[in-house]
Structure formats: structure tokens, C-alpha cells
Amino acid sequence: MAKIMAISNQKGGVGKTSTTYALGCGLKHRGYRVLLIDFDPQGNLSFCVGGDVKLNANIMDVLRGTVAIQHAIQHTSVADAVCANILLSGAELEFMSTNREFLLKNALEPILDYYDYIIIDTPPSLSILTINAFTAVDSIIIPIHSDIFSLQGIAEIQETIESVRQRCNPNIKVEGILLTKFNKRTVFGKQVYETAELIAKTMGTCVFKTQIRPNIAISEAQASQMDLMQYAPKSSVALDYLQFTDEIIERGMH
To answer: Of 59, 182, 224, 248, which residue has the fewest beta carbons closer than 10 angstroms?
Structure first.
């Protein structure tokens, strides 16, 4: 039975897609069966894994019920993935029926025994897409950059999590806060870490022990549509994300 995780933060540009991509690479590197789901209309994750967003069925087709999710999975060189394109932005207006929050959860049911981990890259907005993702998952990972704006985004996402917990998914939990592009040597970096710890306590979670250092290798790997662990295995960012992967595994998420 797959463990399902969402990578989410209301603030854009904090490393959601990079974390989804790199964690997927790390889990695959450790021998797990991984499915990545692009739930962002921008489709950045789909590009990173080399997915075909024009000819293949995508996540919007799955939500509509016109294609079973088994037939939307693309087996790319990076990982198995269900891709997205700009049509996904119409979900808010298109899906108006009762229980629309459960569209993704219901769609995933047939494949839960085929994967160890399913990781969902969510959009930088608290829309029906985010609510669908939170309804379907076991836990949420919140990445933040080392800036005050990323921290501000957590308050809004906390309200959404509580709403989903009460209405749709009582078992949802926040697995932790992940610091990305983090420089622990600076005074400001230390302040961000301390603030993140305080916020984590109010959410009943923690800051992950692993922090992700800034490194151009991950952008290069994504641009090349290659597995990060194969493209730059000795880079600091690959080593950090692999350590983060091990932390996820060791904490008993699977």
C-alpha cells in the first residue's frame, strides 16, 4: 500500500517542484517504487521528468473520469509520473459537484498497491486542487526558502490543513518543514531556522534535520530532464536530498 505525500506551501518559488522531483529521485535510488503527480497547472514537474503533456493523457483527464489513472502514467527515465498542463487551471470552475474534494483520492485507489510512495506537487495557491491533494494524502511536507515570505505562507496553509482534517481527511498530518536553499552560516539563516522551529511546534510537527544547500546542479539536472542522482551524484544538493530521503524512510513513513 502506497504512502501518499504532498509537497506544499502557499508561497511560490520555495522549492516544491524541486523537492518533489529530488525526493522522487532519492526514493527511486533507494529501490522504492515511486509515482510523481504533477498537480500544478504550470507543469514544471512534468517538464523536469521529461513527460509528454500534449499527446499523453494527463491528470485533468483523470479527474474528469475520462481516463483511468493507470493509462495516464508515463514511465520516464526519471520516474513514473502523471503529468499536467495549463488545462488543470480550469478545475476550480469545472468541478462543482458534491464531494469534488475526493476526486484525486478516488482516482488513486486502483494503483495504491503498485507503488511504495506517491508524491504530489501542489500549486502555489489554496484552491480545489490543493484541497484534493490534502484529502488524498497521508502527510504533507512544507518546503520553505530562507526568507520571511516563505514563513508567512505557512499560516494560510495551516488553516487549509485544519479545514481538510475536519471535513475530508481526519488522519492527515504535517510530516515536517524542510529548509531549502539554506545557508546555516549566516545570522539570518539561523534566525529563519529558529522561527521555523517555533512555527513547527504550533503545528505539532518539526523542522527536518536535513537542510538543502543551494546548488546549481539541481536546475541543470531538471533542465536536462535527468535523474538528479545520476546527473550530479556528488553535488551538495544531491547529497542533501539523498540524506533527506533517508530521513523520510527512517521516520517510518513506509
So the answer is: 224
